[in-house]
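Hello K.,

You asked for the raw outputs rather than the summary table, so here they are, unedited. I folded two proteins back to back in the same session to keep the settings identical. This is the first:
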Amino acid sequence: MFMRVDRLITELPPPAAQDPNAAAALQELLGGKYGEMSTLGNYMFQSFNFRSKDKLRPFYSLVASITAEELAHVELVSNGVAMLNNGPEKKNQDVKPGGDPSLTPHEAMKEIRLASAFLSNGGGATPVNSNGASWNNDFVTTTGNVIFDLLHNFHLECGARLHKLRVYETVSDPTGREVCGYLLVRGSVHAHSYALALKKLTGVEIEKMLPTPNIPLSKIPECQKYLDEGSHRRLYTWSPGDYKEISGIWSNDEVALPDDPPGPLEVVEGMPDGGKMQQLAGVPSAFTPDYAPEEFYEIASKLYKKSR
């Protein structure tokens, strides 16, 4: 089962400007072939279908714990997409009614790359790629063969890294770049962990192929604070008591990748502290949460006070 916490996995800076085209680029990291929906879908269903769990506990625990982090990554990218679509929030922007719709307040939206992000989703994210094509089950591999599935996951993380780097090179807004920087560090951890799992099972030192592409994380400014705090050496259990067996794979006799700051690998029980959840203030002229939402706010306020 899963537990949900009302925080993002990391803090995101506010966007410098409204940039729906940057949001469309970021959608590739959500619903693209190597996006977070794919890593989530692969690891989640592999963990559901994992055979001989008790006999292969360290390997099952690895896939299961990373599944939970991938769900947090889906949430992070989705928030980044919505923030870029909506732009910097203004004080009380969601208080007054939406104004005169005949003045075409959103005329510019017909020119953006992914018009459906506004027309259908009100600036929100959905599981589609940068061209609006839907993510689908064809991107999920779950064979039941432990070597094949781990090798596929290693491939998936390398592909995800390539796509994150390319998206990073297309966006300049601090929100989009922070999403990319954080995911590059954590994706590197997951690729490394799957490589070590394969080495434990086969003796093949596949971690020597990392990083792929072979650009160090130190070249990405937004990765630096995560490297400085040691995030590249940490794997989380995402559970208060389960999945500790990952320490048999992500263990103290293994160290950080050569291009990253040195140090032993570390298993952390639980989850990261994370950062604040984004408010994503409404835009009444786009009918989010509605054209004149004051009554809804009053009702919600009364219900909130009643719950305390």
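The second followed immediately with the same parameters:
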Amino acid sequence: MFYYSTNAYIGQCHSLVITAVLALHDQPKYWVTATYRSIFISDVHLGTRDCKAEALNNFLKHNTCETLYLVGDIIDAWKIQRNKWRWKQSHTNVVRRVLGHAKRGTRVVFIAGNHDEFLRPMIPYGIGFGLVEIANQAEHIGRDGRHYLVVHGDMFDGITRVAPWLSWLGDGAYDIVLRLNTRFNWLRRRLGFGYWSLSKYLKHRVKKAVDFMFQFEHNLVSYCRKRGFDGVICGHIHHAEIKTIDGITYMNDGDWVESCTALVEHHDGQWEIVSWTQEKDHVDTDSDSGAHKRRRGHTRPGGDRDAQPRDLSQGREFH
């Protein structure tokens, strides 16, 4: 009797262990949090229909840093003025996530852009949002010891400076193209094809036609050279890229409307563009876990790891 009871008990324990192991195996595989020296994101356009707030919230959940730069157009105030505000709970979650990073010790610097230019009148008075600093431009000293200008970039856009009304017109046209893009890709998925950005294709075709007039990138590079910077980190044109122009490092962190990209600086000084397409933690295949990043960086040794960014709003001004 005792022998039977003992065997039955052992058998039950064995079954419980097997059940627990199977349950753990069936759990979703969550991503390990990545830590960087600095992260740069821009052109989120919170308050718009096409903002990829879920993806950004997931990115901020799984990536931490010492300094987080919000490089302009985080909030789309233009939509408020035109009464086309589309604020969702996911947008509020992004704000809470950013404030949570600041509360846990991350330095958060908000660089004003043209879509959130309502912040610019506050800058001379040193007004911020709690632990979030607000500036028109800032200087970031990289791990490589090089000095980078951090600015949204709208002041170097010929359209924004010469014909602001054309920017408003272009913003409306961009919204229309994004809606067409959504419907176009829905049809492609139904036909078994992958995602293809119609809006990005049209934008780059137009960009090639007007680059000779406005020279956005070269305007930034020229200013950096005149002010003694080694490179520039910006947003504005929704095109993530790392390259060297006439000896000046040009880095654009992209956007969170289509590309869902961020510029990150590793602790060893390497720069990288990260593409993030994940919105929720439901990854359960090894192939998916490596498919969310796109790396195009370069490493530069040296520099002071503890160097802090410096607000240039009161110092260096645009001319």
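The chain has one domain: 34-311.

Happy to rerun anything if the numbers look odd on your end.

Regards,
P.
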